[in-house]
Amino acid sequence: MVAAASLVVAAGAVAGVLAAFGDRRASDEAAPPEVSASPRLAPLPAVPSPSVPATAASASPSPSPSPSARSTRSPAPSRTDTKRERTGAVTGRLYRHPDSQVLAWVRSHSGDPRHAVIASRIAEQPAAVWFADYAPATVTARVAAVTSGGAALGRVPVVVPYAIPGRDCGGHSQGGAPDLDAYDAWIDRFAAGLGSGEVIVVLEPDSVAQAECLSAGDRADRFASLARAGRVLKSANPRARVYFDAGHSGWNPPATQAAWLRQAGAASPESSDGIFSNVSNFHTTADEVAHDRRVLDALGGPAGLGAVIDTSRNGNGAPADGEWCDPAGRRLGRTPTLSTGESRIDAYLWVKLPGESDGCKGRPGTFTPSYAYDLASS
Question: Which entry of 184, 287, 346, 358 is annotated as an active-site residue?
């Protein structure tokens, strides 16, 4: 049993998702921020069980257009007219966005005995900002608020678009855009907020690694949209670094993952700067470095393609019993950095914000200080 990144309940006043749980909050949970929260995990077998549906209707709450319908659209943005070679990896310092649940908790709980540990070991670290709700009218401004904030400080933000149709294979985190045409339009709006500074884009966690539940036609359509998304993002901001989903070291074999990534455009410098792994998971950095290098070797593409690894909760590695929901005994991993000292590894990132619950120590997606304290003090 392995864990996927995607069983999401997105927290945020903009997303409005937590309203579904009612107005009462446990005393150990922080109020949601103005951006989407990072996701909780879901158990997922390395080979999906026969009970997992493979049809378009069951994989997505709104069926994707048929391959014939989608083939009439241009697969590439009109601004992509020339070949683009990947430049070097992003350098400098990562950006800490001021709107996060952990920062909100720290500001309002100065007298809490856990305050110093959580503030110094979690809240001071830069983390990714998730856009997990389908809100086309506001996404450009919300992305721009993050990227402009990073640019003003000369730092590099990390953003996570997470709105692919059929995410989580139609399971508990089903949602996102109603279909792939709507998703393509949402990505256009997302890209319009990227600005012109350095930015890292972690494109759609689980969208490739979890694609086996889709039919062959739906999988091809998804991969075409992902490849298009990469081109749109990099066309909108040539300094954007876009990374594609490589699962993690306990999931698909590298050759399988690489074959899917190639179909999704991850080997093309017009779409991609490489791969990401371990999002919201617990596998050790050493295991992820080895896994990512094997995937990159199998992927092919330009020699400059690299990888970024989520190290937010992997300090003690994955639980031996396969527990995925806020497992005990975990701790923070390596602090986020753009200087890893490892060849082909562009960054260690905190994509999942430590302390945001998977759903066992707090409500899914909410910051739970007891869990954060356990991670930070282990």
Answer: 358
